[in-house]
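Researcher: Quick sanity check before group meeting.
Model: Go ahead. Protein one:
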Amino acid sequence: MTDSSRHPRADALIQVEKIASGGAGLGRLNGKVVFIPYTLPGETVRVQIVREKKDYARAQVLEIIKASPLRREPECPLFGLCGGCDFQHTDYEEQKNIKLRMVQETFKRIGRVEPGEILFEQSAPFGCRSRVQLHRTPDGELPWGFKKAASDECVPVRHCPAAVPEINDFLAGEAGKAAGRDFHGGSDGSSGSGGGRIHVFGSGGRTAFRKDDEIRLTLCGKDIVFSPECFFQSNIPLLEKLIGRAFNGLSGSRALDIYGGVGTFAAFLEDRFRNVISIEENPLSSSYARRNLNPDTTRVFTGSVEDWIAGSADAQTPPDLIVADPPRAGLSGAVRAFLKKTGSPLILYVSCDAGTLARDSAFLLENGYTLDQYRLFDFYPQTAHVESLCRFTRN
C-alpha cells in the first residue's frame, strides 16, 4: 500500500487529457503531470498515486467515473495484469489515431521539427506476433508467462490473443516440456544465456525455442535462417510490407546496411546493388548473416558500427544508400557524424523508438537532408510500440 502522506492526495479525481508517448493517459493533479495506464482522453477517473517524482507522478485507476465512448471490453482476460498490451481497452482504429498523435507530438517535443504526413501501415489487430519472450513462473502447471505490468513478477499464460497459432499451441502444450533441460535459458530457470527466460518463434506450423533450434523462414520469396536467440521482427506480414515499401525501385553500385542483424535487409539489397556491406555487432547474428547472404556480392563485418567507421577504408567512400536499423538508443554521435560526412544521397532509417528517431531526424535535417517520406508500421498492435520507416534524401 502506498503511503498517502507522500502524495498530494491518496484518492483523487483526474481528467485524462491525452495519451503520452509511453501509452499511459496523461492528466494533472495540483498542476503536476500524472500518468495513468489503461485510460483514454476525455475520461474522468478516480486514482491512487503509486509513485511520485519531482516532475510527475504515476497512478492506478480505482474507478472510471466517466468512460470514453471509445472504450471497449478487452479481448484478453489478463489485460491490465499482464504487461504485454497497453491498448486493448479501445478499438484498433483509435489505436491507430493514438499512435499517429504520439509520434507527431514526440517529433515536435524532442526534435522540434514537423514530421509532415505520416502514412500508416496497419496490422491484423490480433494473432500476428510470431516471436515472444517468456519468463519462468512459480506455477508448475503453467511454467511460462509474461511479466506483470510494472513488475518483475510473471503472469502464467496459457493463451495470448496477440500471438500466432503456433505460439499458442506452444503455450498450451510444449511449454511444459520446455521447463526441462532443453531450452536456452538454463535448466533451472536461473542460469544459462536466458537467465530464466525463453524466446519462442512460431511460423509454418512449428515453434523454435531450444538452444540449437533454427528458424527457416521464407520472406518475400527469400529463405532466411536464424536462431531463436537472434533478434528478428515478430510481425512477419508487416515485415514483408516494410521490405516492399523500403526497397522497391532502388538500385545502384554500393549499399551499406548498418545494424544488419541476420542479414534480412541486405538479402534484398544484394539483388539491387552490385556491392553491399552489412555491419552487425552480435557474433551469433553476424554468423547467420554470412549464411543468408551471397559472399560474391555482400561482405559482413562483425563488430560495432563505430569500430567499422574508425577502422575500415570502405568508410571513406560514400555509398549510394545507407540503411540504418539501430536499437532503441538510436544513432550514436559517431554514427551521426559519419552520416553527415559521407553525404550519402539516400538514407533509409528504420526505428523502434520515436524519441531517438526524432532526435536523429533533427540532426539529418540540419545537415543537408530532407525527410521525403514517413511510414509508421504497426508491428505491435495493442501496444504503445511503434516502428517507423523514414526516407531521407540529400538536398
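Researcher: Fine. The other one?
Model: Protein two, sequence then structure:
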Amino acid sequence: MATNEEAVMWVEKYRPKTLDEIVDLKDIVDSLKAFLKNPKTMPHLLLSGIPGTGKTTVALCIARELFGENWRTFTLELNASDERGIDTVRERIKDFSRYSRSAFGNVPFALVILDESDQMTGPAQTALRRIMETSSRTSRFILICNYSSKIIEPIQSRCAIFRFSKLDTKAMVKHLEAIAKKENVTLSPEAAEMIVEYSEGDLRHAINALQTAAVYRDGVVDEKTVLQVVGEASPKQVQMMLNKALNGDFIEARKIMYDLIGSYGFSGSEIVRQMQRELLKLSYISPEQKAELSEIIGEYDFRMTQGANSDIQLSALLAQFGKVGKLKGVTN
C-alpha cells in the first residue's frame, strides 16, 4: 500500500488528466478531440448520464487540454446543486464570462463548468440561457447533469449534447486491476468482477469499493472481503432463497430471508434489489417467466417504498413466487 499517499482517495489519485486516459469513452473522446483541434469553433457542451461515468473528469480534461497547467485561472467551476439560484447566475457567472481571455494563445474564451446543472432552478436556467447567448465570444459553457430532460430546451439547443452510458464491464475490471497493481493490492479476478457488478457501471463507486476492501484486509481483496465491504449478501444465498420459493418451500425460503436480514442488516428494498439481480441469472427460468416474476418484484418494491411493512411484504413476495412456480411448472 502507498505510504505518503495513504490518505489520498484513489478516485482523485487516479482521475485521468488527459482525454487519452479516459476509460471506455472512445466515441465521445474522439468527437471532443475534433472540437479541440480548432478551439475557436468549440460549442457549448452538455454532458449527460448516470453518475460515475466520467462526465466531470472529461470536463476537467478539456480545461487542461485548452489551457495547460494554468487551466484554473481560465476556468470557473461551480456545483449547481449548491449554487443553483438566479443570484449565482447573475453575479458569479455573468461577471466571469463578461471579459475576454484573448491573451491565452488561440483560445479566446474562458471556460465555465456547471456540475449538476439539472438541479438549477427554472429562473436560473432562463438567465443562464441569456448569458450563454450574449457571452459566446468570451466564454464556453460545459453543463454536466444526470438528466438532460431537466435542462430547458433553449439551453439544450445551444449545446452539443454527449450522453454517457454505463461503462463496459471489461474496461472497468481492467482499470481496477491496474489500480490494484500500482497500489500493491492482491485483487482476485472474481472480486474485481463482483465489485464491477455491484457498482452497476459507476466507476467512481467501484474504485471507492476497491480502496475500502484493500484497507479492510490489508491489501488482499477476494470475494469474501468484497461481500463484507459492500454490504451484499452472497449470491448463492439469494439464489437458494429464490429456488426454495419457486419450488414451493415457503418456510425454508422465509427462513433464508430472515437469515439475510439478521446477518447483514439489509432493508427490504436491498433484498428485493438482489432478488431481481439473481433472478435474471437463473438459467432454468424462461424469459417469459422472468418477466412475470420481475413484475411481481416491482409491485412489492413499490409497496415498501410507500411505507408498507417490509417483513410482511417480503413474505408475501416469496409466497407469490411459490404460487407462480407451481402454476408455471418452474422447477430447479
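Researcher: One line on it for the slide.
Model: Residues 169-230 form a domain with the Helicase, Ruva Protein; domain 3 fold (CATH 1.10.8.60).
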